[in-house]
Amino acid sequence: MIDPRLLRDDPDATAAALARRGVDRGALEELLDLDEQRRQTIAELDRARADQGEASKAIGRASAEERPALIEAAQQLKDRVAAAEQARDAAAVAHEAAFARVPNLPHPDAPDGQEGDGEVLRTFGRLPELDGEPRDHVELLEAGGALDLERAAKVSGSRFAYLKAEGALLEFALVRYAIDVAGRHGHVPVIPPVLVREEAMYGTGFLPTDEQQLFRTRDDDLYLIGTSEVPLAGMHLDEVLDPDELPLRYAGYSPCFRREAGAHGKDTRGILRVHQFEKVELFSFVHPDGSDAEHERILAIEEEIFTGLEIHAQIVDIPVGDLGASAARKYDIEAWLPGQQAYREVTSCSNTTDYQARRLRTRIRVDDGDNLLVHTLNGTALAVQRAIIALVEQHQRADGSVVVPAALVPYLGHEVLFG
Questions:
Q1: Do both 59 and 164 map to the same domain?
Q2: 186 and 58 in one domain?
Q3: Which residue is catalytic, options 159, 297, 344, 386?
Q4: Residues 65 and 149 in one domain
Q5: Is 304 one of the annotated active-site residues of the chain?
Q6: Is 151 a residue of the active site?
Q7: pLDDT in tens, the chain (419 residues)
Q8: Could you say which of 273, 361, 365, 397 is catalytic?
Q9: Which of 70, 110, 165, 295 has an alpha carbon within 20 to 30 A of 130's alpha carbon?
């Protein structure tokens, strides 16, 4: 959620920034009206309470003859206070509901444009030179007995998978490898809850705008997480952090669940776009002055992980029209997939500035007593299924076996898959 003061104090600059994200100036005028209504109801409530207080004092000073009339007037003031409280609460609800749908202000350096308009900043790793026609990950994994899509569909429906044998061991190896790299950079490993309350989903910006992508339990007011960003951010809900504690850095491992609504017919083959997957997620709480540097730092960790896996990829600065609601800026790492002859996203990292912290009420204690909102950042250290796709497709050999990158051999225990 953006700071309403930005609209009041600098409406033109705020409108110009949000226009880059497609927010109409008229919608901002409506927000300003709601903000003014909310402030007026607060002022009216303050006046009513002050009048009520004066009336109470007057009753205490009045004679017996004067008191009945003053008591009657005080009752009317009580009714006025109750009505003012209702008006304030209604205005606050309307205000919050409207502001909750406004995306974060984009970073000034984030490129303009829509999906597909990202700016390639650089590439890393060697483009694989394969013998013969490349196979895609489904062919490689199924032939190696590592993947079973047919039985998963029988049990759970489309876009689920069994990872088996060397496929399952490969997941364990990748996860531990990514956690170890993150740990060397000060990220504390966490296994978070995967069922969270609505407040956590709302606090991280996935509600109300992304509700169609979420799985919700039938009998409890709980959501299955689409990323451990949600419970990691929620760890410090309603907390005031000491500046000396910062930065706080975590590496969460969890299964993740997404409906992938609207993605029918797109990337449905194999395990690129599935309803359940596993992920190691980086998350940081930092002082506002350090969030830009922290964003670059998280990106460097992601690049280090994929460089160690000997994956060829490119880093893309995502355009403002393709940012999630909470992100001010986002980088993707896109690995080359020989089976598709295309670069596809395998990780991302976002600076959400104070957008999530405002909803989560996570602040930093400062000397003058006016607490600051912390800045939060998140990044995918490793999305297991997508990492597996990139690894087996880029390191495949003509006989269907896959060379294991040297950095992963100590975790997996052998140098070749399916050989």
A1: no
A2: no
A3: 386
A4: no
A5: no
A6: no
A7: 899 999 999 999 999 999 999 999 999 999 999 999 999 999 999 999 888 888 888 888 887 778 878 888 888 888 889 999 999 999 999 999 999 999 999 999 999 999 999 999 999 999 999 988 999 999 999 999 999 999 999 999 999 999 999 999 999 999 999 999 999 999 999 999 999 999 999 999 999 888 889 999 999 999 999 999 999 999 999 999 999 999 999 999 999 999 987 655 567 789 999 999 999 999 999 999 999 999 999 999 999 999 999 999 999 999 999 999 999 999 999 999 999 999 999 999 999 999 999 999 999 998 776 789 999 999 999 999 999 999 999 999 999 999 999 999 999 999 999 98
A8: 273
A9: 165
Q: Domain holding 45: CATH number?
A: 1.10.287.40
Write down the pTM of the prediction.
0.92
Please give the residue range of the domain that contains residue 153.
119-417
Q: Is 258 one of the catalytic residues?
A: yes
Q: Are residues 296 and 211 in the same domain?
A: yes
Confirm if 331 and 345 have CB atoms less than 8 A apart: no
Token pair 């003053």: residue: 70
Q: What region does 166 belong to: left with phi over 0, alpha with psi -120 to 50, or beta?
A: alpha
Query: Among the three residues 99, 133, 149, which one is the final residue of a domain in this structure?
Result: 99
Whether 134 maps to a domain, the answer reads: yes
Asked if residue 108 is part of any domain, the answer here is no
Would you say residue 105 lies in a domain? no
Integer Cα distance of 106 and 114 in angstroms: 13
Task: Report if residue 26 sits inside a domain.
Answer: yes
Task: Let me know whether 61 and 123 are in one domain.
Answer: no
Is residue 249 flagged as an active site residue?
no
CA-wise closest residue to 334 among 107, 108, 116: 116
Q: How far apart are CA 182 and CA 175, in angstroms?
A: 11
Task: Give the Å distances, CA to CA, from 32 to 201, 354, 355, 357.
Answer: 26, 20, 18, 22
Determine which one of 80, 345, 361, 397 is catalytic: 345
Reply yes or no on whether 386 is catalytic.
yes
- Active-site entry in 258, 297, 344, 359: 258
